[in-house]
């Protein structure tokens, strides 16, 4: 029998245990340093990441001039409905048509990429924490884009 197969898991477990113990000792030493004292909470309480994507097919939205002025409001409302805090918003319009919009959240982000000629929207919502519900944001955005069909996916993150 190959001894590497037997001892490799034990070695890995020992290294992980040592690394975690060492990291906790270092973090305990940082209690007086506000810039990194929050790291202690991150190790003691694992991060919950919710990452959802949605493809909206055959969207029924007005043309660029009518729709884009409201897009930031729609994205901020979607974030609020999901339980997230919105920060910076940015959009880039493509020629002849289309856009990419991005909303930075306190919990991560919402992005929307839209192709007018295809009437297709690719939406990506990622949040951290158990209180945020990205599916609620997707449902809300569907009421604004009015797609004929929706495909969603959950992406597993550590």
Show the helix and strand layout.
Layout: H1 3-28, H2 39-44, E1 49-57, H3 64-82, E2 86-93, E3 99-105, E4 109-115, E5 120-128, H4 134-145, E6 149-155
Helix pairs in contact: 3-4
Structure explained in plain terms:
The chain has 158 residues and is an alpha+beta fold. It folds into two domains: 3-44; 49-155, S-adenosylmethionine decarboxylase, CATH 3.60.90. Helices cover 40% and strands 30% of the residues. It has four helices and six strands; from the N terminus they run ααβαββββαβ. It has helices at 3-28, 39-44, 64-82, 134-145; strands spanning 49-57, 86-93, 99-105, 109-115, 120-128, 149-155. A hairpin with a 3-residue loop joins strand 3 (99-105) and strand 4. Helix 3 (64-82) runs antiparallel to helix 4. It is globular.
Arithmetic mean pLDDT: 80
Strand order of the largest sheet: 2-3-4-5-1-6
Structural class: alpha+beta
How many DSSP H or I helices?
A: 4
Order of helices and strands: HHEHEEEEHE
Count of domains: 2
Shape assignment: globular
Short descriptors:
158 residues, alpha+beta, S-adenosylmethionine decarboxylase, 2 domains, six-stranded antiparallel β-sheet, 6 strands, 40% helix, disordered N terminus
Structure summary:
This protein is of the alpha+beta class and 158 residues long. The chain has four helices and six strands; from the N terminus they run ααβαββββαβ.
């Amino acid at each position: 029998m190959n001894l590497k197969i037997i001892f490799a898991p034990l070695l890995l477990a020992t290294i992980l245990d040592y690394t975690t113990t060492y990291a906790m000792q270092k973090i305990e030493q940082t209690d007086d340093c506000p810039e990194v004292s929050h790291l202690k909470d991150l190790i003691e309480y694992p991060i919950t990441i919710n990452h959802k994507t949605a493809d909206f097919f055959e969207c029924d939205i007005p043309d660029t001039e009518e729709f884009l002025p409201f897009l930031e409001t729609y994205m901020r409302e979607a974030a609020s409905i999901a339980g997230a805090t919105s920060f910076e918003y940015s959009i880039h319009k493509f020629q002849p048509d289309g856009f990419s919009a991005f909303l930075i959240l306190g919990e991560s982000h919402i992005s929307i990429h839209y192709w007018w000629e295809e009437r297709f929207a690719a939406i990506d919502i990622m949040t951290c924490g158990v209180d945020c519900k990205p599916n609620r944001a997707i449902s809300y955005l569907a009421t604004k884009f009015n797609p004929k069909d929706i495909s969603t996916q959950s992406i597993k993150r550590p």
